[in-house]
Amino acid sequence: MRHFGHLAPEVRQRLFHQEPGEFTADSPARLLSAALGATLYSPATRPRLADDIVKQAARGVVSMVLCLEDSIDDADVEHGEENLVRQFARLAELPVGAAGLPLLFVRVRAAEQIPDLVRRLGPSVRLLSGFVLPKFTGERGLPFLEAVQAAETASGRRLFAMPVLESPELLYRESRVETLEGIFRAVDKYRDRVLALRLGVTDFCSSYGLRRAPDMTAYDVQIVASVIADVVNMLGRADGTGFTVTGPVWEYFRAQERMFKPQLRQSPFLEVQAVELRERLIEHAMDGLLREISLDQANGLLGKTCIHPSHVLPVHALSVVSHEEFSDAADILRPERGGGGVLRSAYTNKMNEVKPHRAWAERTLLRAEVFGVAREDVGFVELLAAGIPG
């Protein structure tokens, strides 16, 4: 699979200076954690789940979570498990096309579900990449991680864990540091098993009876923004101890009545004659999503939880490395720069300081490997326009 693999080769050649690289479910964990992109959630109870997965793969989705937790009613868990097993068996028989299948994860409720589901999946477990672990804390999370490791041993299939950080203990100021320390000890013990940490911002908001509007981002809700900052501070460091932390879910896919002006500037769309695209993005509340994605990246997050297929392309378009970013990163990481120093960027608009910017440059080139590098004259508008049907 590859990002933007659903586009025709000639379209990719027109858009990319360096095309997104191919990867598989068996690629190194470091590469997969960067490649997750927009992880699309779907209830495990959907009657045509296998067909849905194939359809979304053909539209550019590369990672999906099939949910047995909050997205389904408590009374439907047993039916969801049965459907999941049935749909995996069907998926194993379907022709999947050139896109292949996305990375598939199951969000469970209890640790005991993990070995049980792996056993019931039988041969189709080969299609599974791992499990999403809800309401993760150091104490609650260890049994989940132990279950994932045991299931991997039993099945012979490499299985990853993606803990969701969403518990009230993480939100409350008096328990936050202790909770983060416990989470770090747990995930550090199973470091090879943990692909990424996911933020459950909807649960954070619910602890205070809050819900952000479509013209507000998670970073406008200060109590949520403070948690994101502390999670990145303690769990997302670039010194080799950190993990990939993914962005929170965007809940909206059609705008309600607006209080504030749209957040998308007109000029980038006028330049490429895409005014109608801008109007469609605003109509479907995508201007808020695009702003939140940009803030995710500025705050050290990579990838995003998504609950609607229309959110996938914006996440991927804004994950593509610009030609300017690539130029700066490649320049900083040249072997002759090993001693440090300061240099003017090739775009002659900024200072690149080799030692302080090295971690950023390494992270940028990893993102370039999986999302590609745009041509010098291509921006996010062209990437969106190429992928959104007319």
UniProtKB/TrEMBL annotation:
UniProt cofactor(s): Mg(2+)
Gene Ontology MF, one: lyase activity
Superkingdom of the organism of origin: Bacteria
Keywords, comma-separated and alphabetical: Lyase, Magnesium, Metal-binding
Annotated TM spans: none
SUPFAM superfamilies: Phosphoenolpyruvate/pyruvate domain
InterPro entries: C-C_Bond_Lyase-like, Citrate_lyase_beta/mcl1/mcl2, Pyrv/PenolPyrv_kinase-like_dom, Pyrv_kinase-like_dom_sf
Protein name, as recorded: HpcH/HpaI aldolase/citrate lyase family protein
